[in-house]
Write a structure and sequence with these properties.
Elements: H1 11-14, E1 20-23, E2 28-29, E3 36-37, E4 42-45, E5 48-50, E6 53-55, E7 58-59, H2 61-83
Antiparallel strand pairs: 1-4, 2-3, 4-7, 5-6
The structure holds zinc ion.
């Protein structure tokens, strides 16, 4: 995996839905690290709002794992704040 630029995004801020597993029908560039995911390889589609419609860019498995990890961190942080106000 190439070194992605910028901060790892979280599903809470970047996505409008759940990532779905996808087999690349043709070589496709990962939205985050710009690596090519080869034909027949597994990647994930993460739905995103883009200009009024839902785009489904693909992410390589490594980038998806990083995004899930960041989402967990963000979710735990907001959960702690919410729970402290119950
Ligand atoms: Zn990637």
């Amino acid at each position: 995996m190439a070194k992605p630029k910028g901060k790892t995004p979280s599903l809470l801020t970047m996505s409008t839905g759940t990532p779905t597993i996808h087999t690349c029908g043709k070589a496709t560039t990962c939205e985050r690290c710009n690596d090519k995911v080869a034909t027949g390889h597994i990647c994930f589609q993460i739905p995103k709002q883009r200009g009024g419609f839902t785009a489904r860019p693909i992410f390589c498995v490594a980038c998806t794992a990083a995004i899930i990890d960041k989402t967990k961190t963000d979710l735990l942080a907001i959960e702690a704040i919410v729970i402290s106000h119950l």
